[in-house]
UniProtKB/TrEMBL annotation:
Keywords: Fatty acid biosynthesis, Fatty acid metabolism, Lipid biosynthesis, Lipid metabolism, Membrane, Transmembrane, Transmembrane helix
Listed transmembrane segments: 217-239, 246-268
One record GO biological process: fatty acid biosynthetic process
Polar residues biased stretches: 12-24
Record InterPro entries: FA_desaturase_dom, Fatty_acid_desaturase
GO molecular function, one term: oxidoreductase activity, acting on paired donors, with oxidation of a pair of donors resulting in the reduction of molecular oxygen to two molecules of water
Residue numbers spanned by region Disordered: 1-75
Name of the molecule in the record: FADS6 desaturase
Fatty acid desaturase domain boundaries: 133-377
GO cellular component: membrane
Amino acid sequence: MPLEDGDPVKQRGQQVNGKVSSTPLLRGTGDPPLQGRPVPNDSRTGAMAESWELGTAPGDRDVTPGGALQRAGQEPGGCEEALMAELWELVQKVVKSSSWWERHGVDISILACSFLLLPAGFLCLRSAQAIPFLVGVLTLGVVHHTLTVKGSHLASHNALTESKSWGKVWAIFFIELCSAFTVEQATYNHVKIHHGYTNVIGMGDSSTWKLPFLNRYVYMFIAPLAVPIITPLVALDLLRNVEWKAALRTLCCMFLGLYCHYWLLLHVSGFQSPWSALLCMLLTRSLLAHPYIHVNIFQHIGLPMFAADRKPRRIHLMSLGVLNLPRNALLDWSFGHSLISCHVEHHLFPSLSDNMCLKIKPIVSQYLKQKKLPYNEDTYTSRLQLFLQRYEELMVHAPPITELVGIQ
């Protein structure tokens, strides 16, 4: 997996036609916890993660293939900045030539359609017949994940609107009211940490998704059912880290969202007991929890990991540490292209909407392959098999650091 001509990453396997066949040769290291870990230059990191930067933020130590830099005749980091600048210009041309409908309208329409499906879903649950009842469960499950995953993800990156004020409103609505989480901690952990330090050990390495005390089958197939219960509990615990006004707002929004769902099941769907309504809430809210957990680990864990002081600059970091899954109609609708088939594009340009990530995908993939940079792609089935076979190595042991050849 070359970084530049002649500067490969040590691997046990190979990347053929952009497909990941195995993981790099790695060197073990510790895995410090994310919670309570300070983020260096937090405001700078947040700005870096939320914008289309030309390279990593000033002050980051840049680890660059020495041979490539000598051939380019540039200062360390200049080659990567030039690559990112060139790619940025190509993407900017597409964005500027795109209409509002392409930039925001398509994704807003998907979210609006999901809202319009809510009444049909609740009414279908009134039926005593199995098929209409199951249609209601499926409808509410898909709608719930569209609002909580796609909506929350786009809102956290302010990709639904170009107004920061409206972006804050949508973030509160989708993240707190619909998802029962807190905006401040969701934005901090996802935008500033995960995007600012993608696959950096102890920070953006997706270690928060690991539960090493669970065996592979429990984690992959049973534990996801508990996501609707765990999410608000984790949110309540994280409220200790936010101001009291934000905590109070979050509590009110979380209660309102959960209670509205419960009330509608009792008074619109006609459930006769509180327990049956709560069980239906759990069923619909966990309908796509399995792919939700899987996608979050498939696209980063098992790929190269880096130390905070020994990491490539942005374009290499994202091309090495991010993976795209194939398009899937259900997951594209519910999770969005930026979380499924355009995850590489999303990490390079996080402020773009799902539809725009899909539109720039041919440009990004062609550019990275032309520059002989990795463009990781793999199938859902292949990643599932990989994690089941190597669960102990990938999900239990501390993530090892990738050793880049030619970098001292």
